[in-house]
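Glutamate or tyrosine decarboxylase
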Amino acid sequence: MVMEFREKDLDLQNIISDEVNKYLKRDLGMMAATKRAPQQLIDKYEKMEVPEKGRDIYDIMNELDNEILEYIHRGNHPRSFSFIPGPGSRLSWLGDILTTANNIHASNFKNATLPISIERNLVNYFAGKLGFEIKPAGGVFVSGGSMANLTAVVTARDEKIATKEVYRAVVYISDQVHHSLSKAFHMAGIPKENVRRISVDAEFKMDLKALAETVKKDTEAGMKPILAVGTAGTTNTGAVDDINGMADICEANDLWLHIDGAYGLSHLLSTKGRDLFPGIERADSVSWDAHKLLFQTYSCAMVIVKEKQHLLNSFSEQAEYLDDIQSDDDVIDPEMIGMELTRPARAVKLWITLQVLGEEQYRARIDYGQRLAEYTAEIVEEMENWKIISRPSLSILSFKYIHPNLSEAENNKVLSNAAQRMAASGYAVTYTTELNRQKVIRMCTINPETTKEDIMGTLNRLDGFVKDEIEGL
């Protein structure tokens, strides 16, 4: 007896077509960059029960369009300047639709031969951009920078210290490093007290003298330094650590060098390319997010290592039920070099985008983002009582309002309130961060659809909100 299920009776073809058309026709610039859901809707969906009998699909779609997907932060909005925006290309979205619709299980070569061939090809392509030798280099697509960093940390741990000695392992990061590294160290069993936070210089780069001295001190104390993490494009300022200098220290002390380039390394495709990251070819591993400046939808990232064998050493396992589909040639299945067995074909959508746009278009888009950051700095410098705190670097800059008659605490409060008012207005997202204990506005201008008019409109509104706040003091 064949069961007849309700999905067959639904007009899914027309519903899907309608939703796709709505998406393609919408003008994000006319929508709110961020919109907070009212409490009544939060209560509605947190308390909603699963019905005994299914509801009308058009009622569900109405809730999705007008409620659930209305009250979100739109990272692909042309005036979403905080965090690191995710301006996903429609080409990437197309790839998402196709790979999801085909429900690809991209764990091994025999399940998804050509999607994995594409993944291997792109890993080799990006390894080449880093200056790694294609063989023995390797890598795997993962969900995001957090998983990429965790994969690299575990690999470094296994390469540099015996499991029974992990309590002696010491790792080194700057105080500008992404918070995902702290999680990675914890999950890898590195004691919290063995994580050394190295200070940064005036340009927010790791202080290499402090790093060398700390490594020396730990070694003399009987500890085992195993890993230093540099950043190629910090979240706060876009700063790039001195990779060559870090590599010298790591090589002299047998440390693994990991570079968190989740955001910044995509600038390897820009006009300046590897000149922005001298020494990147000396890293042992990198993390690299495609869902940031490679314009992919969430989630799509990579961890790339100089020697693929290290990933195999950490993640290769044999499961009897996989015997019939294990690769029998020189192809190494993704599930053997990363945490995931169940995994989507993340590389396909990036491949589509790269093939359609080509390097020339990528280069133009990334260069444009940096020029927008420089333009923003020029405008800010002309505004009364505004000061640049960190110069444009990899399309990121930070600045703040400093009224001469207000205290630092009052200026900070005025700036924070102005940023909240901006978000509440829906026009743009320009939240604050903290640098040297100062509240600053941080803007990341990587969306190729952002215009100079968007920049000017945002800065004018910020200035107006600040002045309104001062009048209310």
